[in-house]
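Supplementary Methods, section 5.1.

A reviewer requested that the exact input to the structure prediction be made available. We therefore reproduce it here, unchanged from the version used in the analyses.
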Amino acid sequence: MAYEVTATRRRPQSFENLVGQEFVAATLKNAIESKKIAHAYLFSGPRGCGKTSTARILAKALNCEKGPTATPCGECPACKEITAGSSMDVIEIDGASNTSVNDIRQIKDEVMFPPNSCKYKIYIIDEVHMLSNSAFNALLKTIEEPPPYVIFIFATTELQKVPATIKSRCQQFNFRLVPIEKVKEQLALAASEIGIKAEDEALYWIARESTGSMRDSYTLFDQVAAFSDGEITYEKIRDKLGLVGVDRLNELFGLCVAGDSSTALVKLDEYLQNGVSIEQLITNCTDYLRNLLLIKSGITKESLLGQAAERFSKDVLSSWNGVQIERALSIFMQLYRDIRYSLSPRYEFELAVSRLCWLKDYVSPMEVKRALDAVRPMLTNAAPSRTINAGAQNGQGTENRPFEYGGAEPPVNSSAIPNLSAEENFMEEPLPGPDDDASEYQDAPEGEEPPDLSDFMRSLQNRGTVKQTQTDSKPVSSDAGNQVEPVTEILPSAPVDSSDIDKVRAALINDFSERDPFVGALVAKTSVWVKNGAGVSCTIPTEFDLKRLRTSSAKICKYLSNVYGQEIAFSVTLKEEIKQNEEIVLPEDVAMIKDIFRGRLIGQ
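The structure derived from this sequence is encoded cell-by-cell as follows.
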C-alpha cells in the first residue's frame, strides 16, 4: 500500500472529527437536520484549519444515500467517490488556476444539467479570491439564482479580496486557528497510530511551531518522525534542526545576568561555530525571554511556554525584574528587524548580548518617577517655608511657599510684578533697628566699635515708605494672585522738543530705560532716525535685535503719538553694511579658516 502523509491520512471525514471548528460543525449539522440548506457557502480562515475538508464533509452529508444527513455513512458509493475525489457530481476547482471569465462561463453552462447519480451537484472552488473581477461578475447571477440541485462552496484564506457582492450572496463561516493543546492531542494520537513514542515537550514544540494549523503540524511531525528512529524527543529536534535548547539559553543568559560579557560573547561564538544560524538563535532567544516574561507574570501553562516552567533558570528569573525582561525582549525584537539591513548580523547580535550584561542596572522612566514621588514629601517637609504677603492689599492673608529658590513650587518672579523693585525685595525683610543685638559684630577686632548704621537704616526705611506710597496708588487686578497690573503704556516724563528727532530719540531712551529697560536698550542700538509725515523710521545693526524690537513697536508708537499729538507709525529696518571700495587682502591662514568655516569679514 502506498505511503500516505499524516495530513492526508488523518483528514476529517465527519463533522465530529473537525478539530477546533465546533461552531462551524454545529451550525452545518443543524442546518442539514432542519432541511435549511443554502445554495452558496463561503468558508474563510487561515491555512490548514479545515476549510476544504469541511466542504467535502458537507458534500458527503448532502449526497449520502441516507441523507441529507448530518452523519454521512462513509460506506455508500457516493461517500466513497467524494472521499476519493472521483465523484462526477462534486467538482473541485482550483481558483488560482482557473481565474478567467471563460472558466466561469463553462460552469454556467454545466449547471444547466442535473447531477448524474447524486442528489446535488456541488462546486467547491478553492482559493476563490484569485478569480478576476470579470469572473466574479459573471458568477453573480448564477450564485444568486442557481438551479435547486446546485450548491456552491467557496474557500479562501483572504476574505478581504472577495467582492462584497459575492459575500452578500453566501452564508459565511469563519474558521479559526486550532488551540495548541488540541494540536498536541492530535499529534499524540498520530504518533500512537504509527507506533512512535513522543515526548510531550517535543509535541508541544511542534504544536507551537505550527501556529494553529493542523496541516502544518502534521507536515512537521512527519519530518521529525523521519529522523527520530521511532522515538521523538526534544533533544533530537534541537540537535537535528539546529536549535538552541533551553539549557543552553539558561547558560547564556546566566552569564548575562552575572555581567560576564567576555564569557557570554565566547559562548555565543561557540553556538555559532556549531552551525546554528543567527536568525534561528535570535528566534530562540526571543522565545526564551518571552517565556521568562510569562513566568514572571505568574503564567506557567505548559501549552504557552512549550515546556515545563521548572526548566528555566531560577537565577535569571530572580535577577531580572519584569521591566528588565521586557527591555531585553524589546532588544531582541528590534535586533531581528535590524539584521536585515546590518553591515554584519553577528556584530548586531554581539552588541545585543553586551547590552544584556548591564541590564541589571537599567531603570525604567516609571521607576524614576516612582522614586521621585516617594522622596518629594520628605523634601517638602524638610525645606524652609517662606511667607509672602500675597493678599496684603485685599486682606486675604498670607501664603506659605516651600523651596525658596526652586523645587516643588517655582520661585516668585519679581519681574512679573511691576511695582515690586529690587529695593522693595530688599525691604521685604524687616530691617534691624538701632537697638538690635549686635552679636554679629562679636568677631570684630578688639577695641573697634561696631559701626553706627542707624542713620543709614532710617534712610532706607524712608525710601521704602515712599515706594510703598507710590505703588499703593496703582490699580490692582482682581485675579487670584492679586498682582498689580503691568504697565502697558509709557508716557513722556517731561516735555520733549518734537521738532528735533534726535531729542525725541534721547527722551524715549531715557524714559524706557527707567520703566522698560529691555526696550530702552534696544532703542539705544538704533540709528538714522527720520520723521516723515505720520511715521518715524530708524535702522538697527543686527537681525536678532530687529525681531525683538518689532515685538515692542506698539509701545514705541504710543510714546511717539503722545509726543507729536497724533498717531505715529514706527518702523525699523536692518542696517546695511558699508562695503569698502578697496579689496582687503587677508593672510593665507586667515583666508583658509574663513573659507573652511564659511565666515565673512566684519572688520579690520
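Confidence is low (pLDDT under 50) at residues 382-444, 463-487, 578-582. These observations are discussed further in the main text.
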